[in-house]
Structures are given as C-alpha cells and as structure tokens.
Specification:
Structural class of chain A: mainly alpha
Number of strands of chain B: 20
Strand content of chain B: 25-35%
Number of domains of chain B: 2
CATH superfamily of the largest domain in chain A: MetI-like
Order of helices and strands of chain B: EEEHEEEHHHEHEHEEHHEEEEEEEEEE
Strand order of the largest sheet of chain B: 6-7-8-3-9-10
CATH superfamily of the largest domain in chain B: P-loop containing nucleotide triphosphate hydrolases
Largest sheet of chain A: 2 strands, antiparallel
Oligomer: heterodimer
Structural class of chain B: alpha+beta
CATH architecture of the largest domain in chain B: 3-Layer(aba) Sandwich
Distance between the termini of chain B: 31 Å
Bound molecules: adenosine-5'-triphosphate, magnesium ion
Chain lengths: 415, 363
C-alpha cells in the first residue's frame, strides 16, 4: 500500500505521531510538578519501605571480607573478633573509602543504631593513618571506642546476609529452623490472628456503615432541600471535629463508669456490678470505627442517589411493582456503584486504621496497623514493620482484585 | 357523554382539591369525566396543576379532598401499583440498568407472567413501536425519539386500559414531535385505550385530542372539543391561551338575549355575542380571531374605521397591526390573494366582522 504523505513529503503517520507526541509532552509537562511531588514524597519512600522488608545487601557489598570473616565469629561468646577480622575490615574500608561508599553504609547502619553514621564518617580519616606494622585491632580500638564495642560487631553480623526472609516469616508467625520453615507454637502466634481480626473487623465495620448509612443517604437525597442540608451538616459534623476528640468522646461514653453504663444502671436495665464492657475490646473498636467511617460510606452513596430521579421508582410502581420490588429491582441496582465506592473507601480506610483501635481497642480490638506503628516507633524493627506493611498492602490489592472480579471496578462511581 | 346514559364515566374526578403546603390550593375544584376510549388532554400554562392531577390519578399524590373514580370504583385508597394505569413520563424513566427488552418485560414479570409469554408480548410491543431490533440495547444507547417509543411500548405492554402521558414529547425536536404525535394518536385508535395526555403545547393538544381540558389557576377553565375550544372559547383565559386573539376592552351598555352592546375605550359602541359577561355596566373583554376580521368592501355592517400601523409580509398572508376601537395592537390576518391589493401604513380602512365572531367575555 502506498504511504500517504503530507504536502511537505513527510509520511502522514509520522507527522501525526509527531503532533501527538508534542501534545503528550505538553500534557506531561502540566502534570509534571504533581508527578515529581508524588514520586518524591510517595512512590520512592514506599518502594524503599517495601524493599526494606527484605533488603540487606549494603553491608555485605561494602564490607565483603569482614562479613565473610564474621561468619565464624560467635556473638554469644561475648569476645571481640580476632585480628583477622580487623584486617578484613581495614581492607574493606580502604576500598570503600576510595569509592566513597563508607558514609552510605554508615547512614544505613545508623537506622539500626545511632552513632554509626558519625563512626563511619570519621573512619575515613582514621584508616588513612593506619600502618601495617601495628595490630589493626589496636589501631581501630585507639581510633574509636566503638570498634571495641560488642554491639557494633553484633550489628555488623546481624546485617551481613544480603537478603532476609526473616521479617516476612516472622510476620506470618513462622520461623526458620535447621529443618526448614515451620510455624511458631500456637501460643506465640500473634500476626496471623491479627491479620484475620483486622480483615474480619474491617468487613464488619464496612457492613455496619452500609447498613446505617444507606437509609441516611437516601434521606439526604430525597428530603426537601432545607431538611437535607441540615442533615448533611450533621453527617459532616464529625469531619469538623478532631479525630482524637471524637475517639476520646467515645471513651467517655462507653467506659464502664461512662455515660451509657451510668444511664443503663440508672434505668435499672443492668446492675451496678454488671456494668457492660463497651470499650477496650472489639466492641469498642467496632462502635467507634463505624462512627468515624460512616461519612465515607454516606457521601458516595448520597452523591449517587442524588442522580437517581424519583420518576424511576414511580415508573416501576406504575408498571405494577410493589414498593419493595420497585426498590429492589429498580432503585437498588442503580445505587450499586455508590455502594461499591463507599464500601471500598470504608474498607480500605478501616483496614489501615491505627489511632482509634489504639485508643479504644484494648488488647483484643487492635489492628495490624497498631503493630506496624509499634515496630516503627517503639521496637524500631523497621524491616518487620515493612514486612507487615507489605503483607497488608498485598492483602488490600488481592481484595481489590476480587472485588473487581465480582462487582467490577468500572462500576464504582462517586456521583 | 355516558353520564346521560345513567352510568358513570370511566374516569371521574369528583370535586378534587389538592394542596401541597396546606396554604395554597394547587388544584381548586377539579371535575372531569373521561369516557372509555377517549383521548383527553390537560392543557395549561406551567404550574397550573396538570402534573399534579395526573399524579393523583396515578396514585403518586393523594387528593386533599374529593374522590377519583376509575371504572366506577373510588381509587383514593388503592396504591399505585394496583391501579393498573400505564404511564409515560416526561424524561421517559427507562431503567438504565436494564436492556430495552428487560424494561418491557418488567411489568409482565411483576405480574408473574411466564417467560415465554413475556418474550412474546415484549416482541409484539417492540414491533408495535417499530423498535423490534433494539431489544438488546440499553436505554442510554438509544436516541431521544427511540427512548420515547420504548417508554410508550413499556406503558402499553401490560395492556392497561388507561394510559397517562405527562408531556411525553417535550424533549423532542419539532419534526420528531409531530411524527410521534401522529404515532401516539394512531396507537390510541388502534388499541382503543383511554389516554390522559398532559401538554402545554396548544397545537399538540388541538391535533391529538378528542377533548381538551384547559387548566389555569387550579381549575378547568373549559372542557371542550378542539374545534369548540378554538371557535367558542367560554372565557377570556381560554380565548387568549388558544390561538391568536384580539382583545377589545369595553363596558357592557345593554344586554338583549345573547347580544351585548359594548362601549369601547374610545367611546364607540358595537354589538357582540354575549358569552360570559356579568351584566350591564360591567367591564368586558371582546375577543375576535385575527382571521375573522374582514376589511374594506367585505367589512359588512358591524364595521368601523381602522388605521394601519404596521404590516408584516408572511407569504401566505399579511399580518396587519392596526388601531381599532382605540386598541393599537389589533391584529388582522389578510389572506394573500395575489390581486395586488396592498395596504399601506397610515392608511385608514373599514374593518368589520360577524357579530358572532366577536365574543364578549369576562374582563
Ligand atoms: N411536590 C410538590 N411540593 C410542593 N409544591 C408542588 C409540588 N409539586 C408541584 N408543586 C406546585 O404545584 C403547582 C402545580 O404543579 P404541577 O407540577 O402540577 O404543574 P404543571 O401544570 O404540571 O406545570 P408544568 O407544565 O410546568 O409541568 C406548582 O405551583 C408547583 O410549584
Ligand atoms: Mg408538569
């Protein structure tokens, strides 16, 4: 087939591609600031975080001889490594300093133990002054006390292997033994149970939100303007108060000496001794989370319902359908998009929720994210936190995929 | 009407009133009898309560006072889905999540009809509106006119004896509108159904209806056949609302039988057909259709002088605005006879009409 050409002899296809490319570039330029922002503040940190759950390469790459030498060193013996190891360290560092890699290693190890960064920055000068005639061990010890500290060597040994599945195994209540991977004893398992609880409770919370939110959304969409505006303000009210304040309010209401129990006792529904445990357990988390996430269910539902004219229901009834049939066959199917959007939003928010379960969940009502937070801020086991986070993310993606299979993600709409 | 035969009409509004807010009556006193097989149009300006009346008949609004009878039974307490009334909505209200065929099958399904019977009826209904090939489509994949047909087919598929249509052609362009008017009329005659049709387009009402109820202010101003409505409006609202109309203000000087002597604002007097004037000394509004006015030698005996103010050439006729009996907006339609008798602005000419064409109405 003959190629069509433009007037100046360029093939038409090429010309169009060129024009489109310019267009695309211009579009890209427009979103570039946002793209860069997201890349720097979101994509890169998250990827880095996720890699952290397995990555362990920097130590063995920067200090290959040292890590090899440390393999035979037994930290439990509480003895500093032998001269050969210090020699290996000297050789490794000399090379690393030439390539300016030693500070990176310092930064990396500093995440695990503070002081490492300055130690490795300083070592650059120290190593250049060292002489082969004297014991390297003594020279290192003289250069910085830290080189004579067992903790430093423990750290190096701990982070010798390039990759580790340890975090993930631990996150799934498993461990490595000489015979292979096996489950922890029943009594030591925490994470699987926690994952199951997080998912189960998120589903329950989503269902509760849907059950409570659907009628409200319907009212919002169908009441006269003035009334529905007032109702809308009530729905949005929670957004205007701090999350902590609301959660604390639930504490005041639900605790054993709290308002609800007081009223029930006063009414004689329960005895003073039989005060209900409404908080610091799963029930507390369910109540508080449902309340907090309710608007996220109501708003998408409302925006979808608002677009459904009342004439559909009327048409259905005029065609002979009872109120229920008209609702179920005509109204409800048109709100599925809103239910989908609301459910996804609520569920994903719930599954990663942290502050509310922390405050009202006690020990039985906490979520996996509380555990992640614990590892990030208290135990400083970031690899563990990353592994748990990765599993959580994977879970959400899998559920998202299942949801797409069943409902269809294209059906989700916000109005 | 069937009432004269001693039986009740098929649909009867008996002194129906409706108020939404408890302060104003949207429908004040609505009385209307509709015979079986009739095509009745509710015509009126926006906000006059047409939709409200239709909704009361369909059961989506309850009458504040009065009874509505369908086939001799009061239906005030019958829920909409048990009334068996077909309805076509202005925005069609086709269910967007169902295909065209599913939409049509819906009323049959809720009536518990078997699948084969359903399919049969749906196919027939689709063929009836010439949409046989579109059963598998979604409403969103149809043009406005096609959706209109489907809405019509859906309202008819369960064979209701009464079908309500609320401005069903409002969203269509003029040509399609006229075409659909014809089709609806045709279906009405073919199926023998009773139709209550709402529109605020008077030409639509005139072409389609057996009878028209002109609505204003919550009451029926006149209920009559299209021709009667145009030829013999019974009050000034109807005269103004239907077709073009000259209004001459005056005072009744004398009343003899059906003849009223009216004195106009410029002091001249003329006789008119007394249709709806309150009595001697009361103001009146005389209504004359522009095409009934004759000029020049044909003016006849009830003639006066008119001064030509403006001339508009419209091809088949010439519109002439003149000053008659002190009214400067008096319009005369002069047929274009092609004989070259052209008027000129400023000219004074004799203007007259048949006494019966000048109707003295309420002011
Ligand atoms: N649900 C309602 N609540 C309160 N007032 C209403 C309601 N529906 C209609 N009205 C009022 O009742 C009056 C009659 O309304 P209706 O819809 O019957 O008019 P219509 O004759 O159908 O007008 P249109 O030609 O514009 O459709 C209007 O003044 C309207 O404001
Ligand atoms: Mg209306």
């Amino acid at each position: 087939m003959e190629q069509i050409q433009t007037l100046n002899g360029v093939p038409l296809k090429k010309q169009i591609a060129r024009a489109l490319f310019k267009q695309k570039m211009r579009a890209l330029l427009l979103i570039a600031p946002l793209l860069i922002f997201i890349l720097i503040t979101f994509v890169i940190p998250i990827t880095d975080m996720l890699l952290r759950s397995i990555d362990n390469s920097i130590v063995s790459e920067t200090l290959p001889q040292t890590t090899a030498s440390l393999e035979t060193w037994d930290p439990k013996a509480a003895q500093l490594p032998d001269e050969a190891t210090y020699l290996a360290l000297y050789n490794d560092l000399k090379l690393a300093i030439e390539q300016k890699n030693h500070t990176k290693l310092g930064t990396r190890l500093n995440y695990e133990s503070s002081g490492m960064s300055s130690l490795f920055r300083k070592v650059g000068k120290d190593v250049s002054k060292m002489q082969a005639s004297v014991s390297y061990k003594e020279q290192f010890l003289a250069a910085d006390k830290a080189w004579g500290d067992l903790k430093t060597w423990n750290l190096l040994k701990l982070y010798s292997p390039e990759y580790t599945t340890g975090y993930f195994l631990a996150a799934l209540d498993m461990k490595k033994t000489p015979d292979g991977i096996e489950m922890l004893p029943e009594s030591d398992r925490i994470y699987l149970n926690l994952f199951a609880r997080t998912i189960f409770m998120s589903i329950v919370i989503t269902a509760l939100c849907l059950l409570l939110g659907y009628p409200i959304a319907w009212l919002l969409a169908n009441l006269p303007m003035r009334t529905s505006n007032l109702l809308m303000i009530l729905v949005l009210l929670p957004f205007w108060t701090s999350l902590l304040v609301r959660t604390s309010a639930w504490k005041v209401l639900l605790q054993q000496q709290g308002v609800i129990n007081d009223i029930l006792v006063w009414l004689g529904v329960i005895t003073n001794a039989g005060r209900l445990e409404l908080i610091n357990n799963q029930l507390g988390t369910l109540i508080a989370m449902t309340h907090i996430l309710l608007p996220f269910m109501i708003l998408p539902l409302y925006s979808v319902m608002r677009t459904i004219p009342p004439s559909y229901m009327r048409a259905a009834k005029s065609l002979g359908a009872t109120d229920w049939t008209a609702f179920w066959r005509v109204y409800f199917p048109q709100t599925i998009a809103g239910i989908g959007a609301g459910a996804i939003l609520t569920f994903i928010l719930a599954i990663g929720y942290y502050i509310t379960p922390e405050l009202v969940g006690g020990t039985q009502g906490t979520f996996i994210s509380n555990r992640i937070a614990y590892h990030i801020s208290s135990s400083l086991n970031w690899g563990m936190a990353a592994a748990l986070g990765t599993i959580l993310l994977t879970l959400v993606l899998v559920l998202y995929w299942v949801y797409d299979r069943i409902v269809g993600i294209d059906k989700v709409k916000l109005g | 009407m069937s009432q004269s035969q001693g039986t009740q009409p098929f649909v009867l509004f008996d002194n129906v009133q409706k108020s939404y807010d408890g302060i104003t009556l949207v429908v004040k006193s609505f009385n209307l009898g509709i015979d079986k097989g009739e095509f009745i149009t509710l015509l009126g300006p926006s906000g006059s309560g047409k939709t409200t009346c239709l909704m009361m008949l369909a059961g989506f609004e309850t009458a504040t006072h009065g009874d509505i009878f369908l086939d001799g039974r009061s239906i005030n307490n019958i829920p909409p889905h048990k009334r068996g009334i077909g309805m076509v909505f202005q925005n069609y209200a086709l269910f967007p999540h169902m295909t065209v065929a599913e939409n049509l099958a819906f009323p049959l399904e809720v009536r518990g009809m078997s699948k084969s019977e359903r399919e049969d009826k749906v196919r027939k209904a689709l063929d009836m509106v010439q949409m046989g090939k579109f059963g598998g489509r979604r409403p969103a994949q149809l043009s406005g006119g096609q959706q209109q047909r489907i809405a019509l087919a859906r309202a008819l598929v369960f064979e209701p004896s009464l079908v309500l249509m609320d401005e069903p052609l409002g969203a269509l362009d003029k040509q399609l509108r006229e075409h659909m008017q014809f089709e609806i009329k045709h279906l009405h005659e073919h199926l023998g159904i009773t139709v209550v049709y709402v529109t605020h387009d008077q030409s639509e009402a005139l072409t389609m209806s057996d009878r028209i109820a002109v609505f204003n202010d919550g009451i029926v101003q006149q209920l009559a056949k299209p021709a009667d409505l145009y030829e013999r409006p019974s009050n000034s609202f109807v005269a103004q609302f239907i077709g073009e109309n000259n209004k001459l203000k005056g005072i009744v000087k004398d009343l003899k039988g059906d003849t009223a002597l009216v004195e106009f604002t410029n002091g001249q007097q003329a006789e008119a057909l007394a249709v709806n004037c309150e009595g001697v000394g009361k103001p009146t509004l005389c209504s004359i259709r522009p095409e009934r006015v004759r000029i020049g030698s044909q003016a006849g005996m009830y003639a006066t002088e008119g001064k030509v103010i403006e001339l508009i050439y419209l091809g088949d006729h010439i519109r002439c605005r003149m000053s008659v009996y002190g009214d400067d907006s008096f319009i005369v339609k002069i047929p274009n006879a092609g004989d070259g008798t052209m008027l000129s602005v400023g000219q004074t000419i004799r203007v007259g009409w048949d006494k019966n064409d000048c109707r003295a109405l309420d002011a």
